[in-house]
């Protein structure tokens, strides 16, 4: 037997440079783990500071990479193209917002700040690698890295049975899904003879070094189906969404905030690389399935959200619905769709984490009932600025104009229309219509007069307040002047399409 | 295909059977440890597929992937057992049907 | 085809559009409510004066479809190398919208001034929301890009939701939700229509050589998109049978917001019919002419009939408003110059009259403590000034020749008569009904035996805080109209008298635009559902 080693075995400095943001975050992770043992006082503040500093450095590294990225490095397994860097931005912004909203919650539920931030950074590394992966192997390792950290984080509040349960459920169901994903990868590897995304694309496009039979092989289609199941699971696409509400509700709120945006962003980045690029030549074969999944996800997510009484569960089903809208853009399989996915996550980072900031503040002020929508009654009278921020997030999630959510949704549905999938756009618009009811119900509850008039909430903790304001500014700013960020998204998609030789 | 000489198909079918057994185990068993073992079985059946493909395609990728899966599986064991132990400490039972604090 | 000009060299429309929002931001940061209370009406009045400049700068020398004072900026027109989204920031006014812009400036100034003494609880928030609403309303009338139009169309709802939900009376939550469900349903279908238009034409600009007006869709496609747009506008108007949100929303709204809602927002629906439904889908408009005309006739009779039997004066005025709005739709769908001219004229008249009537409702209620007609009577003897000013609006409401609405309704009926004599004859019945319910309203409240006013509610609820905080009164006003209340009426009365004498001021400017519109309809492929060349 002869094994073919196709690339020279050495790693250059440029290779390391192409994963610099990931390396910086890994460094921060190690520093936090070590420092955690030595911080004598004000542990939460110091740990938050280290985490934020790491994120800032990684952000600067990512900005540098924006113009100096490499199409492929480390034996063609990682790409630091603009698409990956754009998702790095999304993940880092989300991590920063999470770090700002966490301190008050950490004090409220008494868990160890050092370990907490270390795990957040560890999963961020996984996510950033996932967004940059151009090899099925790296996708798998990155996915496991981010998942393992999130399993622990979900069960981090050991004093609360719900949190333990969330961690365990997430662990079991997610590993189950990983097995499907990796089995699918094995099949695709068997059919195409490679695990590198670029080569899979070449192979399926009947390029050199690959038999034309590959794209007709049943192995390939079984593999694609299994991979679809795996991806669908991770981004909570119906019918693989069962874990989402339980995990979102049980996990500590900062963790839910973080994972609700970043996991989806990272997995969707890989999802796009695999389905819109590697598997683009066989689009006609997977389109029907993705079409059906998108419709079911939008319908089920929005309808089940109508009856929720817990804010975190509401946001979980809302997240499922949003995954459906994003899947519409992915199903469009065109440049506009990919741009809109990238932009969508930026918008989603602000509006969704913003909504969770509110939940975290409410919980740290009112205890576990802070998660109940009923406890928001009269918030406009008790804490006008927090209620105003919540209203902005709800209007944005519902897709009202002048907010980021509207622009994002508009672009996603435009992409479907441009690809002549008008049916998806129409169903998307109609299900958004349903969603307005449950988002505005939250605003409606806040507008009701409080049961005990005249009581004021304690002031919002400074860091969480800052996070809320940043999120509000991002939500409205992206809604009114999306031009700049949309240009970045456009450039990122142009870059990745260029790599794959698409116009 | 000579039925007496094992070829790629035989290994792949075996791998598929093992994977299916794992799936059935996850779906039907109620003991978290058994569920956990079933997931491991699924991962190992994938390893078998990878090794088979690697051999018949003369490509190293599959074998590297196998090592990665083994490492990841080990890491999953660590985290999974820790979670199970933590739950067991606080409530003295580990039937997944009893994990129903949250509904809706 | 449609071109745009701007002879002014300053972005006047943008300034008018953004000034209220800027004012809102300042109101938010100023330290005291008292300052905000002065600032907000000042901003609104300045904005009105600026919007009056738009009328001055609107020239009649250009060609018909010219959008004047245009201001075009890139927004997200295209993603380079990826897609042409056709989304621009493009403002401009034509002969129809120029009046609606001025009207918005005037009515919002009156509404915000009214709010300063009618609302006391959370006044600052109310003023901020009203100023944001003003921006959205201006945007709806100024936008000549469909996306921009939709943004403002939806943006109107956000402040409305709060204004009705927080400061409304009685069953305000029910009214708010009903209002939202109806209007959002309509506008989301319009969004689907916008997607479709974009996919077929690749642009969302109205004007310009590649604009939507220059490239009508084929007749079958027109039908569907026309229906999607019509639904949105018909709900906003409200056109029968989509009106059922309106009586609830109108009767629970705080009066300053009601001036914006009934006075301006309902006109946005009528304006949408003219600007979008007729101009973009002339064939479909022709096909659906009969259907919409019949609905409008039923609606105006039905609403007028209901106005006759109302005992709640706010609901009475609400139904009269719905009746008149349906008449305006009838005029638009006469699809000839006379009818549409009349409709535009009547939009202005209706806005003025209905605001005056709703203000009268507020004034009466603040003095009697009730909205129920049977509990009133003889108010005229007690408060003669109120009676005489109210009388002006009653006369205008029943189309007395010489006052504003006579010429408008006359033109509408004339236009309709030319299309279909039957429609016009039946529609004329509403004029009689209008006279009937208006006189009944006036007689029962101002004349007749005096009744004791209802005393303030025994327990001062948490809501109390203003003479105008309905329905719980902190204290009733005992005397005749206050100077502030009179001041609000002055511009309205002057406008009614002026438009009664010189409606030609309006029609002269509307005519070229409407003439072009009618040409579009007449030159469209021949009627027949799904037909065409």
Summarize the structure.
Chain A is mainly α and 503 residues long. Chain A is 76% helix and 0% strand.
Which helices and strands occur, and which strands form pairs?
The complex is a heterotrimer of chains A (503), B (104) and C (533).
Chain A: H1 13-18, H2 20-36, H3 43-68, H4 82-109, H5 113-132, H6 136-154, H7 161-192, H8 197-204, H9 218-234, H10 243-250, H11 253-278, H12 283-305, H13 311-332, H14 335-366, H15 379-382, H16 384-398, H17 404-418, H18 422-447, H19 462-480, H20 483-499
Helix pairs in contact in A: 2-3, 2-5, 3-4, 3-5, 4-5, 4-11, 4-14, 4-19, 4-20, 5-6, 5-11, 6-7, 6-11, 7-9, 7-10, 8-11, 10-11, 10-13, 11-13, 11-14, 12-13, 12-18, 13-14, 13-17, 13-18, 14-16, 14-17, 14-19, 14-20, 16-18, 16-19, 17-18, 17-19
Chain B: H1 8-28, H2 32-57, H3 61-91
Helix pairs in contact in B: 1-2, 2-3
Chain C: H1 12-29, H2 33-57, E1 68-79, E2 83-93, H3 97-118, H4 123-142, H5 146-155, H6 157-167, H7 172-201, H8 219-236, H9 245-252, H10 255-280, H11 282-287, H12 289-309, H13 313-332, H14 337-368, H15 379-382, H16 384-397, H17 404-419, H18 421-446, H19 483-501, H20 504-523
Antiparallel strand pairs in C: 1-2
What is the 3D form of chain A?
globular
| Chain pair forming the biggest interface | A-B, 48 and 45 residues
Q: How many strand segments of chain A?
A: 0
User: How many strand units of chain B?
Assistant: 0
Describe the structure using short key phrases.
heterotrimer; B: 104 residues; mainly alpha; Helix Hairpins; 3 helices; 0% strand; elongated; C: 533 residues; 2 domains; two-stranded antiparallel ribbon; 20 helices; 4% strand; globular; disordered C terminus
Polypeptide structure, described:
The complex is a heterotrimer of chains A (503), B (104) and C (533). Chain A is an all-alpha fold and 503 residues long. Chain A has 20 helices and no strands. Chain A has one domain (14-499). The radius of gyration of chain A is 22 Å and the shape is globular. The relative contact order of chain A is 0.10. Helix content of chain B is 75%, strand content 0%. Chain B has 104 residues and is mainly α. Chain C is mainly α and 533 residues long. Chain C folds into 2 domains: 1-215 and 251-268, no CATH class; 288-456 and 464-523, no CATH class. Chain C has 20 helices and 2 strands. A two-stranded antiparallel ribbon of chain C has the order 1-2. In chain C, α12 packs parallel to α18 (421-446). The longest helix of chain C has 32 residues, at 337-368. Chains in contact: A-B, A-C. Chains A and B meet through α6, α7 and α10 of A and α1, α2 and α3 of B.
């Amino acid at each position: 037997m002869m094994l073919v080693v196709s690339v020279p075995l050495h790693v250059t400095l440029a290779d390391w440079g192409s994963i610099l943001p990931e390396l910086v975050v890994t460094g921060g992770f190690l520093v936090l783990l070590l420092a955690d043992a030595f911080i004598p006082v004000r542990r939460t503040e110091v740990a938050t500071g280290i985490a934020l500093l790491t994120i800032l450095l990684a952000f600067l590294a990512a900005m540098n990479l924006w113009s100096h990225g490499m199409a492929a490095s480390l034996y063609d397994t990682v790409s630091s193209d603009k698409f990956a860097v754009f998702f790095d931005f999304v993940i880092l912004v989300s991590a920063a917002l999470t770090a700002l909203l966490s301190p008050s919650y950490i004090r409220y539920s008494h868990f160890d700040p050092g370990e907490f931030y270390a795990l957040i950074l560890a999963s961020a590394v996984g996510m950033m690698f996932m967004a940059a992966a151009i090899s099925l192997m790296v996708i798998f390792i990155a996915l496991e890295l981010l998942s393992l950290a999130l399993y622990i984080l979900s069960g981090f509040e050991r004093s609360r049975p719900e949190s333990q349960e969330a961690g365990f459920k997430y662990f079991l169901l997610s590993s189950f899904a990983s097995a499907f994903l990796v089995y699918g990868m094995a099949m695709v590897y068997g059919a195409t003879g490679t695990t590198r995304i670029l080569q899979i694309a070449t192979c399926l496009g009947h390029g050199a070094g690959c038999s034309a039979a590959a794209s007709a092989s049943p192995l390939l289609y079984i593999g694609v189906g299994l991979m679809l199941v795996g991806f669908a699971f991770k981004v909570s696409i119906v019918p693989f969404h069962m874990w989402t509400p339980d995990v979102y509700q049980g996990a500590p709120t900062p963790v839910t905030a973080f994972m609700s945006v970043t996991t989806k962003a990272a997995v969707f980045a890989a999802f796009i690389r695999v389905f819109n690029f590697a598997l683009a030549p066989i689009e006609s074969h997977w389109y029907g399935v993705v079409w059906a999944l998108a419709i079911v996800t939008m319908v089920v997510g929005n309808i089940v959200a109508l009856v929720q009484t817990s804010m975190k569960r509401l946001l979980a089903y809302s997240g499922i619905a949003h995954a459906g809208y994003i899947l519409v853009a992915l199903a469009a399989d065109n440049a506009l769709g990919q741009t809109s996915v990238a932009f969508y996550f930026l918008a989603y980072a602000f509006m969704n984490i913003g909504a969770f900031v509110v939940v975290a503040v409410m919980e740290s002020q009112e205890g576990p009932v802070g998660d109940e929508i009923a406890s928001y009654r009269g918030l406009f009278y008790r804490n006008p600025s927090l209620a105003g921020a919540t209203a902005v997030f709800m209007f944005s999630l519902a897709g009202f104009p002048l907010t980021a959510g509207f622009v994002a949704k508009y672009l996603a549905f435009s992409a479907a229309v441009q690809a002549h999938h008008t049916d998806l756009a129409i169903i998307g618009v109609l299900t958004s219509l349903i969603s307005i009811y449950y988002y505005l119900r939250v605003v409606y509850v806040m507008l009701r007069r409080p049961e005990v008039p005249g009581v004021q909430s304690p002031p919002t903790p400074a860091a969480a307040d800052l996070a809320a304001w940043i999120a509000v500014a991002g939500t409205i700013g992206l809604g009114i002047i999306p031009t700049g960020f949309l240009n970045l998204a456009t450039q990122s998609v142009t870059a990745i399409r260029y790599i794959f030789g698409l116009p | 295909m000579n039925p007496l000489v094992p070829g790629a198909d035989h290994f792949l079918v075996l791998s598929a059977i093992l994977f299916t057994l794992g799936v059935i185990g996850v779906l039907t068993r109620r003991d978290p440890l058994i569920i956990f073992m079933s997931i491991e079985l699924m991962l190992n059946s994938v390893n078998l597929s990878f090794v088979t493909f690697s051999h018949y395609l003369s490509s190293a990728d599959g074998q590297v992937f196998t090592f990665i899966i083994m490492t990841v599986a080990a890491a999953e064991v660590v985290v999974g057992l820790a979670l199970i132990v933590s739950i067991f400490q606080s409530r003295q039972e580990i039937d997944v049907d009893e994990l129903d604090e949250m509904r809706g | 085809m449609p071109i745009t000009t701007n002879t002014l060299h300053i972005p006047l429309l943008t300034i008018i559009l953004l000034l209220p929002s800027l004012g809102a931001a300042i109101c938010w940061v100023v330290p005291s409510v008292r300052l905000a209370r002065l600032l907000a009406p000042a901003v609104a009045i300045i904005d009105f004066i600026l919007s009056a400049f738009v009328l001055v700068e609107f020239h009649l020398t250009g060609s018909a479809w010219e959008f004047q004072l245009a201001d075009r900026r890139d927004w997200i027109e295209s993603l380079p190398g990826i897609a042409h989204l056709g989304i621009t920031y493009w403002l401009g006014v034509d002969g129809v919208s120029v009046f609606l812009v001025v009207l918005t400036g005037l009515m919002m100034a009156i509404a915000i001034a009214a709010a300063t003494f009618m609302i006391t609880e959370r006044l600052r928030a109310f003023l901020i929301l009203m100023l944001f609403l003003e921006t959205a309303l201006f945007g709806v009338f100024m936008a000549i890009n469909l996306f921009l139009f939709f943004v403002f169309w939806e943006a109107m709802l956000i402040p409305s939701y709060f204004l009705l939900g927080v400061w409304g009376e009685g069953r305000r939550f029910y009214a708010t939700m009903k209002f939202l469900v109806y209007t959002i349903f309509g506008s989301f279908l319009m969004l689907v229509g916008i997607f479709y238009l974009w996919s077929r034409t690749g642009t969302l600009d109205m004007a310009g050589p590649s604009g939507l007006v220059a490239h009508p869709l084929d007749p079958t496609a027109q039908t569907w998109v026309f229906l999607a747009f019509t639904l949105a506008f018909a709900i906003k108007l409200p056109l029968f049978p989509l009106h059922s949100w309106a009586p609830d929303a109108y009767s629970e709204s705080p009066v300053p917001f009601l001036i914006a809602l009934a006075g301006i927002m309902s006109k946005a629906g009528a304006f949408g019919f003219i600007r979008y439904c007729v101009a973009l889908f002339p064939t479909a408009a022709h096909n659906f002419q009969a259907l919409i005309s019949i609905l409008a006739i039923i609606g105006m009779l039905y609403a007028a009939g209901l106005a006759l039997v109302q005992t709640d004066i706010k609901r009475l005025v609400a139904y009269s408003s719905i009746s008149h709005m349906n008449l305006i739709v009838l005029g638009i769908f006469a699809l000839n110059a006379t009818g549409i001219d009349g409709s535009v004229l009547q939009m202005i008249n209706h806005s003025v009259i209905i605001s005056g009537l709703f203000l009268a409702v507020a004034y009466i209620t603040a003095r009697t403590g009730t909205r129920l007609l049977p509990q009133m009577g003889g108010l005229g003897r007690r408060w003669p000034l109120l009676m005489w000013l109210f009388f002006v609006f009653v006369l205008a409401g029943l189309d007395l020749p010489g006052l504003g609405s006579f010429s408008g309704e006359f033109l509408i009926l004339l236009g309709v008569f030319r299309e279909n004599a039957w429609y016009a004859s039946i529609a004329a019945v509403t004029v009689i009904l209008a006279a009937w319910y208006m006189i009944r309203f006036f007689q029962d409240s101002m004349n007749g035996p005096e009744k004791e006013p209802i005393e303030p509610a025994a327990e001062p609820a948490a809501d109390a805080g203003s003479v105008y905080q309905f329905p719980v009164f902190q204290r009733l006003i005992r005397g005749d109209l206050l100077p502030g209340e009179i001041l609000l009426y002055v511009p309205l009365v002057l406008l009614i008298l002026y438009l009664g004498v010189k409606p030609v001021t309006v029609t002269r400017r509307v005519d070229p635009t409407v003439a072009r519109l009618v040409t579009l309809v007449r030159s469209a492929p021949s009627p027949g559902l799904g037909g065409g060349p």
